[in-house]
């Protein structure tokens, strides 16, 4: 196999995100080469301001790939696109695709494409976000025509005063599983782990083994990898089992 003749996928990620590249590489396997650029650091900015900055500079950041030939690109930051309505998100991705000369999708648009392929009209969200951003996420999916059956919040840790600290990059697999098992899930509702920074592959694999409902289980990164595989092709045999299973469900 000629390494440099493989399909090329570009991924745009927040600067502190430690999760996207490892998960994308595991998911798409050896049949696709993954290249990344990162949003700029925004020292001292509040979360909403930072996310709005990402949306504003996205065309320039995508341009940081320069003249490299890419077959497709994914914007692996769900939170910033939740600030857009679904139509605005789609329009932005269309503009980026036309300018770049290859398909560009946000992780949110990839999730919507996957839901359409699965025939899914309902979701249960597993969210590592602060409550206001979780509510924004829920509103995005509802405006897109999906029913949100339930929300499972997964904070990174409890604070000394008894509160909860939210940080997607620090959520652990045991905490994800504990929160889900304590909360319980609606019967049959597809499960979406939202956010590209929360590591979910181990939790998804564990839940897939123990869930007898056959419900679809996916994350922002898994849905994005599914979309990317459809956009660029690539070797199916080397893809992660979770991705191959989604291919089967969507077929």
TrEMBL record:
Name the source's superkingdom: Bacteria
Q: Which InterPro entries match?
A: Iso_Racemase_Enz_sf, MaiA/AMDase
Q: Name one Pfam family in it.
A: Amdase
Family annotation (Gene3D superfamilies):
3.40.50.12500
What is this protein's name?
Arylmalonate decarboxylase
């Amino acid at each position: 196999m000629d390494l440099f003749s493989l399909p090329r996928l570009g991924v745009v990620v927040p600067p502190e995100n430690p999760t996207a590249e490892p998960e994308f590489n595991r998911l798409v396997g050896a049949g696709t080469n993954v290249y990344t650029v990162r949003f700029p650091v925004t020292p001292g900015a509040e979360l909403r301001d930072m996310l709005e900055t990402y949306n504003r500079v996205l065309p320039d950041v995508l341009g940081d790939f320069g003249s490299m030939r890419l077959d497709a690109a994914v914007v692996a930051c769900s939170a910033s696109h939740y600030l857009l309505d679904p139509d605005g998100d789609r329009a932005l991705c269309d503009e980026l695709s036309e300018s770049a000369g290859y398909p560009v999708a946000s992780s949110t648009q990839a999730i919507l494409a996957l839901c359409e392929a699965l025939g899914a009209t309902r979701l249960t969200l597993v969210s590592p976000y602060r409550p206001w951003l979780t509510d924004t996420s829920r509103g995005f999916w509802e405006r897109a025509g999906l029913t949100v059956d339930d929300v499972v919040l997964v904070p990174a840790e409890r604070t000394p005063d008894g509160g909860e600290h939210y940080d997607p990059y620090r959520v652990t697999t045991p905490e994800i599983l504990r929160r889900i098992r304590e909360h319980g899930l609606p019967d049959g509702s597809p499960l979406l782990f939202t956010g590209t920074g929360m590591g979910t592959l181990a939790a998804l694999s564990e839940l897939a083994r123990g869930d007898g409902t056959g419900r679809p289980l996916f994350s922002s990164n898994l849905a994005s990898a599914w979309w990317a595989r459809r956009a660029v092709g690539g070797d199916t045999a080397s893809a992660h089992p979770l991705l191959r299973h989604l291919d089967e469900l969507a077929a």
